[in-house]
Amino acid sequence: MSIEPRALPTPAPGAVTLDAQDLFALGRQASAAREARLGRRGSFVRSRQLLGPASWRGPRDAAESFVDDGDLAAIGGLPAARAAGIDLFVGAPEAAGAQAAAAAGLRVLLRFPYRLGETDGQRLDRLAAIAAVPAWGLLPTPVGEPYGLDTLRLFALCRLALPKVPHLLADVGALGPRLAQMAFGFGADEIFAPIVAERALRLGANAHNPALTRKEAVTLIRGAGLTACERFSDGRLEEVAS
User: Fold this and answer.
1) Closest of 165, 221, 164 to residue 192, by C-alpha
2) Domain range for residue 150?
3) Segment (H or E) for 114
């Protein structure tokens, strides 16, 4: 079953109502904003990452290929990345590569670093400063340990402050599976994690392995109360059958 994206509604003025300081009120508002645009669903995608010339991490038949800004120099820059079949650039908003990648026709996923102790006002100012970057998605990235309630509030702010950015991703490697799942209740719509055929138990040296099997990704999304969908290379979302 294929699911077509809904048209983007015109954002209401003053979308971020911080006079409602309650975290769960913000969460409901952020979830409503996500659902107005994308429906009540969450997604995942099988992807692979270009690390260097002819050096990849992830399955060869992945639906999406991406490069991180930090690896661009080793690869030979954006032209080399494009020649390798990259369709997604991941980097910080202030990185020159983000604007260049967008100009080159790549989708741009912006990392948004945050740390405990920042105020809502500080975060909203930073979000406003990146609103002009033509981003496909936003990837909140904690500096240091992610704290649960602080992270969930940040996700809600991101969804509400950037209505023109379609996607808000939860990084399983940075947040852990449980907090990533909870982020779906605060505006997130997609998992950012390696999707693998099999995964060893998270024990010992493998304790922080961010990889998920396809079944685990589906379970995580459904556990958040959303319809689980897989995203494909053409942007199509397909609901995963039970």
Assistant:
1) 221
2) 2-7+22-239
3) strand 107-114
3-state secondary structure of 74: helix
Torsion of CA 168, 173, 179, 184, to 10 degrees: 20
> Do 155 and 171 touch, CB atoms closer than 8 A?
no
pLDDT tens, 153-205?
Answer: 999 999 999 999 999 999 999 999 999 999 999 999 999 999 988 876 655 66
Quote the pTM value: 0.89
User: What pLDDT, on a 0 to 100 scale, did the predictor assign at position 2?
Assistant: 42
The CATH number of residue 96's host domain is 3.20.20.70
Long-range pairs, 58-61, Cβ under 8 A, ≥24: 58/194, 59/196, 59/197
The CA-CA-CA angle for residues 130, 182, 221, to 5°, reads 100
Q: 29 near 60, Cβ under 8 Å?
A: no
Q: How far apart are CA 218 and CA 212, in angstroms?
A: 10
pLDDT tens, position by position, 61-106: 999 999 999 999 899 999 999 999 999 999 988 767 888 999 989 9
Count of structural domains within the chain: 1
Q: Could you tell me if residue 15 is inside a domain?
A: no
Q: Is 13 inside a domain boundary?
A: no
Residue 81 lies in a domain: yes
Closest listed residue to residue 92, CA positions, set 105, 116, 106, 108: 108
